[in-house]
Amino acid sequence: MKRRQLLHHASLALGAAALTGIPAARAGQFTGKIRKSLKWNMVSEGKNLPLVEAFRKLKACGFDGVEPSLVDVKEDAVESWIAASRESGLIIDGTVGGRTENLDAGIALTQRLGGDSILVVARYDQKRPLQEQWDLARDQLKAAAPLAEKHGVKLLVENVWATFLISPFDMVRFIDEIGSPWVQVHFDVGNLMRWGVAEHWAQILGKRSQKLDIKEYDLKKAMNEGMAKGFSVPLGEGSIHWAAVREELAKIGYTGWAAAEVKGGDWEYLTDVAQRMDKVLDL
Question: CATH code for 27-281?
Answer without folding.
Answer: 3.20.20.150
